[in-house]
Amino acid sequence: MRTDPTVLAELDELERALAGEPSPWSELVADVRAERPVMTDAFAARLDSRVDEARRAPARRPGWLLWSPAAGLAAALVVAVVLVSGNDTGTSPPASSPSVASDAAKSAAPQAGGGSASSELAAPGGATAPRPLSGRRVERTTALALSTARSDVQSVADDVIATTHRFGGIVDSSQISTSDSEASAVFALRIPTRRLDDAIAALSKLAHVASLSQGSTDITGSFVSAIDRLKDARAERRALLKALARATTTQAVDALKARLRDNRSQISAVKGELNSLRRRANLARVDVTIDGHGKKGNGAHPPGAWTPGDAAGDALRVLEVGAGVLLIGLAAAVPLALLGGAAAMAARTTRRRRRESALDGV
Amino acid sequence: MALPARPDAASSFEALYRSCGADVYAYVASLLRDRAAAEDVTALAFERALRRRRSFDRARGSERAWLFGIARNAALDELRRRSRTAALVTDPPDEALADDEDPDRRATVRAALASLDPRERELIALKFHAGLSNAEIAKVIGASESAAGTRLHRAVTKLREACHAH
Q1: Which residues of A touch B21 (CB under 8 A)?
Q2: Which end of chain B is more exposed for a tag (fewer CB within 10 A), N or C?
Q3: What's the rounded Cα separation, in Å, for the pair A166 and A153?
Q4: Residue A163 lies in a domain
Q5: Shortest Cα distance from B62 to chain A (angstroms)?
Q6: Selection from B48, B10, B64, B49 nearest residue A56 by Cα
Q7: CB contact, 8 Å: B50 with chain A?
Q8: Looking at this predicted complex, what is its ipTM?
């Protein structure tokens, strides 16, 4: 905004008067200056004393300057950790400690109640499926991936078979393939459900656990339905037999015998279905894959060993998590800082307006 | 955390105190129109300035403007406090000032000053009693330099007219 030239000229005259030069404002300046409040000698002495006292006290930084950045950082880190831990549902890459893996495997159990459930244990020590409620029939499935040196695949495969037998299980199918650079084995096992946890723990000790996932399917409904159908078929059979005893004509006897044949077939089919369901509930399906690569001591490693490769992987993971925490912390801190800045600005404006309003009330 | 005062900062503050002490008191007393309160506020302003001397930024204005800003805030806080707790009481005319050769003229000027709006009286005090430049006044009252000049001109003109009217 440009000031009126007349106003500027008069302000210049005022400045001249204040500087003691001749000016139309000189008289007014002298009169107003004569009204200037003057401090008494007593107050001047008191003021010197208070200022001296204040001068001896060390200057202090405002308290909030010290704690606000630290508090902001701490708050951001807390938010970040909460977010990270909330998102970390066990999908991280596998760790390499078989002992931990076995612990995880031991605690793994199927989900019950719902139709089906699964729990991924990508890293040993992750989530485990809860045990089934009593009276329910649950089919459990497990997929276990082991990794070892290429030259060890065969011996680990032998151990898998031996472990399966040791726990009363059976090998439904197995396939072992080897080449110059790689070797692998795939097994489909059936292991008694009641010993599944121990069996998985034992299998996990055979090699490095690359991944472990477990699932469960509630087959109680199918089981109850089959039992009901078997009961109905048996009741029908009893009724047919009674009717056959009372039949007097050849035609009636033949018809009843035909229905009895159908009934027997129906009973047999339902029994087969029941047996299948019992087998699924009693024998958990375990799919084991063994991945062999590299040479012993060069890339692959024996169970329990923590190699430089593992260390590098862990270090990378730590860096990833650290970067994630930092990123989330920043994402949380920036809006908070903006809000804080806006609040501080609003508070400053309000304080200034309140102070200015004091002049209106004089 | 306590910070040791730097020698140059201490001497700079000492110079500021010596050069501005009386001016700050004159400004605050004109604003409050209460000598006892003006003494308290003046001392408080210098204590605050000492505590905050590290926050002074020369790029944002002169030391005088910074100091008068602190004094102004302290004075306005005092005005607010007094408006909340009791009716504002102003001092009677200073007896020491009454002893002069032209009491009627002094009374006229005093009446003219009293007739001014508080904001105008503040500008007069900053200009005539404290001797601040228009740029410094602008910093103190939080306005642009041109706005401060315009307001000052209006206040001075009103004061002159009031003097003539009386």
Answers
A1: 39, 44, 47
A2: N
A3: 20
A4: yes
A5: 19
A6: B10
A7: yes
A8: 0.82
Q: Would you state the pLDDT for residue A107?
A: 40
- Given a cut of 60, is residue A49 above it in pLDDT? yes
Number of H helices, E strands in chain B: 8, 1
What's the one-letter identity of residue A10?
Answer: E
Q: Is residue A35 part of a domain?
A: no
How far is the CA of A268 from the CAs of A202, A255, A264, A265, A280, in angstroms? 38, 20, 6, 5, 18
Element (H, E) at A321: helix A308-360
- Average pLDDT in the A198-203 region? 92
**Chain B: nearest CA to A18, how far in angstroms?**
7
Pairing of strands A182-192, A283-293: antiparallel
Could B129 and A29 be called an inter-chain contact, meaning their C-beta atoms sit closer than 8 Å?
Answer: no
Q: Residues 104 to 133 of B: which have CB under 8 A from any A CB?
A: 105-106, 109-110, 113, 118-119, 122, 124, 127-129, 131
Total of domains in chain A: 1
Which among A35, A60, A362 is the nearest to B109, CB-wise?
A35
Give the C-alpha separation, A342 to A321, whole Å: 31
Residues of A in contact with B102 (CB under 8 A): none
pLDDT of residue B9: 62
User: For residue A43, which residues of chain B lie inside 8 Å, CB to CB?
Assistant: 25, 39
| Residue A96 binned pLDDT confidence (cut-offs 50, 70, 90) | very low
pLDDT tens digits, A122-180: 444 444 444 444 578 888 999 999 998 888 888 899 999 999 999 999 999 999 888 77
Q: Which residue of B has its CA nearest to A349?
A: B142
From chain B residues 76-105, the ones with a CB under 8 A of any chain A CB are: 76-77, 79-80, 83, 88, 94, 96-97, 100, 105
Neighbours of B156 (CB within 10 A): 25
Please name the member of A34, A39, A358 whose beta carbon is closest to the beta carbon of B25.
A39
CA distance A179 to A150: 9
Range of the domain at A317: 98-221+278-322
Kindly tell me if the per-residue pLDDT of B58 is higher than 50.
yes
Nearest Cα to B42, choosing from B76, B71, B79? B71
| A63, closest residue in chain B (CA to CA) | B1
First to last CA, chain A: 30
**Of A19-28, A94-103, A152-161, the least confident:** A94-103
For residue A349, tell me if it sits in a domain: no
Residue A186 lies in a domain: yes
A59–B25 C-beta distance less than 8 A:
no
Domains and CATH numbers, chain B: 13-165 (1.20.140)
The C-alpha angle with vertex B104 and arms to B98 and B107, in degrees rounded to 5, equals: 65
